[in-house]
Predict the 3D structure of the following.
Amino acid sequence: MEPGSDDFLPPPECPVFEPSWAEFRDPLGYIAKIRPIAEKSGICKIRPPADWQPPFAVEVDNFRFTPRIQRLNELEAQTRVKLNYLDQIAKFWEIQGSSLKIPNVERRILDLYSLSKIVVEEGGYEAICKDRRWARVAQRLNYPPGKNIGSLLRSHYERIVYPYEMYQSGANLVQCNTRPFDNEEKDKEYKPHSIPLRQSVQPSKFNSYGRRAKRLQPDPEPTEEDIEKNPELKKLQIYGAGPKMMGLGLMAKDKTLRKKELLCSLPDKEGPECPPTVVVKEESGGDMKVEPASPKTYLESKEELSHSPEPCTKMTMRLRRNHSNAQFIESYVCRMCSRGDEDDKLLLCDGCDDNYHIFCLLPPLPEIPKGVWRCPKCVMAECKRPPEAFGFEQATREYTLQSFGEMADTFKADYFNMPVHMVPTELVEKEFWRLVNSIEEDVTVEYGADIHSKEFGSGFPVSDSKRHLTPEEEEYATSGWNLNVMPVLEQSVLCHINADISGMKVPWLYVGMVFSAFCWHIEDHWSYSINYLHWGEPKTWYGVPSLAAEHLEEVMKKLTPELFDSQPDLLHQLVTLMNPNTLMSHGVPVVRTNQCAGEFVITFPRAYHSGFNQGYNFAEAVNFCTADWLPAGRQCIEHYRRLRRYCVFSHEELICKMAACPEKLDLNLAAAVHKEMFIMVQEERRLRKALLEKGITEAEREAFELLPDDERQCIKCKTTCFLSALACYDCPDGLVCLSHINDLCKCSSSRQYLRYRYTLDELPAMLHKLKVRAESFDTWANKVRVALEVEDGRKRSLEELRALESEARERRFPNSELLQRLKNCLSEAEACVSRALGLVSGQEPGPHRVADVQMTLAELRAFLDQMSNLPCAMHQIGDVKGVLEQVEAYQAEAREALASLPSSPGLLQSLLERGRQLGVEVPEAQQLQRQVEQARWLDEVKRTLAPSARRGTLAVMRGLLVAGASVAPSPAVDKARAELQELLTIAERWEEKAHLCLEARQKHPPATLEAIIHEAENIPVHLPNIQALKEALAKARAWIADVDEIQNGDHYPCLDDLEGLVAVGRDLPVGLEELRQLELQVLTAHSWREKASKTFLKKNSCYTLLEVLCPCADAGSDSTKRSRWMEKELGLYKSDTELLGLSAQDLRDPGSVIVAFKEGEQKEKEGILQLRRTNSAKPSPLASSTTASSANSICVCGQVPAGAGALRCDLCQDWFHGRCVSVPRLLNSLRPSPPSSPLLAWWEWDTKFLCPLCMRSRRPRLETILALLVALQRLPVRLPEGEALQCLTERAISWQGRARQALASEDVSALLGRLTELRQRLQAEPRPEEPPTLPSAPASDPLREGGGKDMPKAQGLENGDSVTSPEKVAPGEGSGKRDLELLSSLLPQLTGPVLELPEATRAPLEELMLEGDLLEVTLDENHSIWQLLQAGQPPDLERIRTLLELEKAERHGSRGRGRALERRRRRKK
């Protein structure tokens, strides 16, 4: 029964070893250590330490190899036997010219081989039929009972197998008559061209590999070109067209038919159709059918032969050209009955040209068969042809590592239909053995095996001159686990072989893919092997121990005798597998393992092993031999001699080479070589004696090691000779070893002579040197044993023991147990000497005293016993005895002092000091120590609790309590500990209470804290929280004093002082009543400041309130003023206290503030005048000839204003971009409320422009400022802004008085009257129709201007500081646009001046106007003066045009923003 895919049971796991780094450093030593365990399994696995990771040294780009081809089901021995049987039976039916169909029984292909074998085992076909045991045959083939399968099997057997078995047994052959014309020239016999060994052979185009190819696919046919190139084919071609013997495959294409004629003189005889070859087709039902490859009808064959240049008849005539006609006719007689009658029923054999009647055959044929027919003799000869030797062929494609990996991964992924890394190893293992055991499935894989590392490079780093190695690579290049290094290690036997034996001394490389396998084998010379998997997927191994090697061979020969009959050394060819379960079922012990990347697998001598690869991987393997291998190596040579197998190297030569230099051998190796050499010398004596007895006396010395191996091999057993060989003077081409002296030649013994390497006298001398080397260890060991056991009663000195150890090191003795005992004894003795010296020096006072950890008295006595028991003499033992006597005397004195307690502390302390100097711990010394510590602790407690002492901390108290727990107990100690504990409890309670006061959210009043502090002062302990509470209370009292001082001063307190006091008071852990009042005052002051800021400051203003209220003292410097404004924009300005040049302390004095304010007014006025003069000298941006210069104006945007759109500030006279600053709006200035101004009263248009550097605030009206002053008077706090506001108010009122006085003068009053009359006259002009109105304004009376056209009035808006919002502009967009166009059309009609202002009147008004523009207050008088000055000069048309253009652009942009906002609102809805 063949195991199925689910029936495979994995064998048990082999041993796995994980060496430590110390063990890993000695490879062969570690292998020898694990050998007793691992050898029992045959193989083992070794996992190196985790950080041993050699780099991969192969040059990947240059690595190219040609793999072997493996067909899996041809690897397994039992499967191969079945396939061979199927090949033979298919060949049998093919020769018969019949088609064969392998039937299906119970939905599986019938196993014809097993059927045949079981029939034979059951007694044969006749016996089974007689006993009706076909049901038993079906049962043995594992078919279910009760389905009449036995009858079906009988039918198949009779139809397919029985005829073949009959031919095999020769039962159908009878004694034929003697062939006529035996004395005549016979036809030449043509043997088929032998198929070469498949291992390492390139496949030819016409000789397809794989016997399955003959059964499952058409035979390849050679072309004419192949026949011309191949001499064998060309030689066979002389016999003309037609099929040849099965397996030759020698037909040229298109020559597939052969015409058979029984007689050349019978033209009416027509030959039957001759199919040339037979193929097995796999049909839908799973059956395989043998049938003609390309059958043709008779007419086709006849037509083809008629056109053939060399018909079949030509061959017959050519072979019989020399015969007479009578002889020729008589030659066509039946070989069975010797008659030539009934020639229409006479068959001509296509193999040997013998003739048979169809009725003479057994069994008889009913009619002449069609196609090729062979006689029984030819069929038997062909079927009994021995099969060709099996081997692996090389692939035709060369791979790189990358291309092979891509192929391998693709194959595995496609086969299992999943990523390669996800395929379980168990699944691959079961599938492998299923495929190996399968007859139907042919799976082919490729294996890059036995790749020479010398040629392609090792996977390990190698120290050579080809490339420079890094330090890391150098480390691995010299490691003993490097497979290039291990075979030549000092303890290795192979290092004594000079030749680089590939695969043994030089590693081989293996590149595997899934299912690629290595078959059952043992290593050459039964050596060890080691395999390292560099990377890739695992490699699965199976191993059998050496004890079961012969058992495995017996089982395989028993189960597949057919393979070993034709190939006796089959197991040495590495081409045969057998299922481990099959071996285990026959009692062969098998183990397995999965070798992962980075792991070693070691096989032991004569351990059979096999396995396969789980996927794409890269491995490296090599052989090595140790001393324990030598007996196995000798046995292997004897085994090879019996098998007549070639040796890889001469075992005798290896032994002798090592024996020639014994001093270079490892001691274990020398001992092993001595044993082998002794056996070898004894055997050589026996063989040479036998040679003398035969009478061979001639001899000559021969340096066999200089001869090639093929010139010194025994012609009988193929052993490589070294010590001696027998040769013949007359037969110089061959020699034999002395074990086969009778097989050399037939010549006389006198012509034969001995060729020897060493004489029989030289061999014992070599043996003696080995013995001296091997026994030197025994001599040394005896000396060490006597010294360690003190057998002669004399202890050796340390120097003598060291000399023995030095001898072992110099002579490289093995690390034996005795040497280890010697080293341990030396180490122990040296440690004792060192310890004794330390003990003695520890008793000596002075700087050289050793203060190591002291030993106890018991340890001292044990130490003295240890020194006495050591097998070496040490004079320090007397010193140790003296120390012991001192210690015992001190012990008696200490006991006496302890018995007379209480002793004085001084006496106890002196005794304690003496005990410390001994260097030994005495039990009584510890008691003395406890008494001294107790006295010290009581004194410390007494000092700590004394009233006059400094108060100790809680940590000190706790430390005393902890120390008290370790001192010797006594009533005094207990009392002191109780007092300490009570005091510590009270102190901790008060400390906790103080902590709660410091951390509590609800603050306690000062009186409560004073009571807590007062009570805690009575505790004689330093309490940190009480101290912190005391400090907090002192700070609170100081704070209350500061508050009283500020509140009772001459002036109201400043806001900064109050804020500082509030911040300090909030941080104090004390409840303060004054703190609430101060917080309320600060809050009120901040509220007033915020109200004032909203009144004065613009939205997002870059100025502070104090800056706006104070005069701009540096107004005269344009650069300074502008840089300060930029600093404000960027947030770089530092402090408000710099405005008036006052310090923080000066700001607290009202008088200083007023004086500084007055001085600032004057500086501001002088500065603005200077600035006006400077800016007036700058070129106008509106002039076309303006050029860039350093004197040009700079806008707030940092650019020079140029061209249209530039505006000049009426105060500082500087120029700005109209789009960069807030500008007046003309439409807003045309107010519709009565009295309405006509549009042509241009002096009333709001064209006044102050830049943002001059107009720093909203400039509220004076009435608003007075309301702020009233609220300020109610504040009990002084603010710098409040005092600055008072100064500003006084300044504004003063200016207002002067302005009213100027406006009330006679000249100015007259001018104002004339302006009033002019306005009234413009209003009185008739208006024929209502003009359009401005948006959102009610209709008003129209005004007639100039040509009688109706003019609209505009609704005035407050002169703001920002652009009009889109929401306000949007509803009147169309009307506003028309009004702006109307105003633009009126510009040519504007004329002026409308008043004549004398210089005496203008100058005072301009000065007042200048001062009024500096005020950050809005006053009506300022507007009146400005109108007068405007009316006294021509209208500024350029400014009006600029303002109109800016307003148009602004309205256009606002309209776009308004639409965007409207769309946004709609989307939100």
